Amino acid sequence: MTAQTSQTSPAGIPLPIVKFNRWLLLGSISLSIAINQPLITSALFALLLPAVVFGRRGSLIFLVGSKLFAKRNLTAETEDAGLMRFNNSIALILLGLAQVAFIAGLPLAGWILSGFVAVAASIALSGFCFGCFLYYQFNIQRYKLFGQAGRKCEVKEEGQAGAEHN
Description:
By secondary structure, the chain is mainly alpha-helical. It has one domain (5-165). The chain is built from seven helices and five strands; from the N terminus they run ββααααβαααββ. The protein has helices at residues 15-34, 39-54, 60-68, 70-75, 81-103, 107-125, 130-146, and strands at 5-6, 13-14, 78-79, 153-155, 163-165. Strands 1-3-2 form a three-stranded antiparallel beta sheet. The chain has a two-stranded antiparallel sheet with strand order 4-5. Helix 1 (15-34) packs antiparallel against helix 2, helix 1 packs across helix 3 and helix 5 (81-103) runs antiparallel to helix 6 (107-125). It is globular and about 45 Å long. The model is unreliable at 1-6 and 150-166 (pLDDT under 50).
């Protein structure tokens, strides 16, 4: 499953920025593992936290990516901002748990948790977004449990296509 994309949407995140985010996660975690420096994963945690809490307004990655890829972003396909936030939330949780493991004196657990983020980023870069799959499954289960409260569907008169949502 690939990321949910649309042609160009002002509410979406341009794919060059999405890929920049994935490469940054993969590269930083790989470097931190290679040099055995958990502070790099702490820096990633600090970088993702405002992005998850405030969305693109708080994302340094979005700001830098907007400047670096300004021309490509104008015509690039986009990914749903909610999906990007969901994926970053998963990375933030795993990196946060890794920080707890490092502080607790369990470096192997910290590296494994950090490694999950790097593996997910590398898989997403090769075409399958595991976070997107989880997002889709989460929404299906949420719909099964709670339905679509407050929305009803009315069929339009004959000759009019589609349905109207109130």
